[in-house]
Design brief:
With about 290 residues, the chain is an alpha+beta fold. It is about 15% helix and about 25% strand. The longest helix has 28 residues.
Amino acid sequence: MHRDTQQYSVNVRMGNWVEETRLQSEKIKTFLAKRDRGELLVQKSQRMYTSLLRPIVLNSTSEFLRYGEDAQLVCSDIRFPGWKDGAGGVALSCSTSDYRSELDGLGPGCTITASPLTESCVRNCFKICKIGSNCEKGKPLMFGDTFAISPCISSKPLFVAAVMPRLYTEQGVSGHPALKLVDAQDAYCRWTVDYWRVSMREEAKGLPVPNGARVVLKHTATNLNVAVETNFRIATFFGDEYEVSAHTYKDVSGCEKPQNIWEFVTSRKSSGSEDDDGMNDDTKTNK
């Protein structure tokens, strides 16, 4: 019985080997060229980490929060399980979903989270930006003012917005509108603050916001409050962190829960004061 046998040419096998060797050599040259130019993915990732975790010194001596000033937004009543940081609380922070798009890791679509890392750095420090001619840089922010929030350092203008989902798949993991960075200032980038005590909100309107004051950060387009979603975590390049959304959590008396109570921190001495804005029994009742 005859069987067909495939015949191989020595020249063909040698040609294939030469071609494979050439391709491998080209890949190595390309890799080395990218490494020398700093274009490798691992190099971009390292630059992103370095950029976003670069320390920011908060040393304001002003009594009140001012436009254009670096500040953190800290939800001091919320604790992240297993986190041993002595400062406590969680800080509003920029994450990133695609570190290849921007050198500093920040860009449109970047997710805003609540991180247990509260040491002031680029990713968790923001500026209060003016909207309109009455909000000049350096002037105190007033209760009732409408303003925008931007990262303290970024390679392009960016603003914190509550993204209103058009499809179910665009919702945050909690099902509530998620906070993200956008590159165009529109109605969904506008915010205002109310005093945390319900009984004193009308009285506080028009007064400057003290540094370290406990406030409710409200999205003006929806009248919803910025909330730490303690039941929903997001996996980020910095570890698991809480989702942040536009959603109002209230107790049986109609007062905001701790997930909605924030502090503007412009100095490490501003947070956790022992006065009316510090942590006390009234924090839970909000009355």
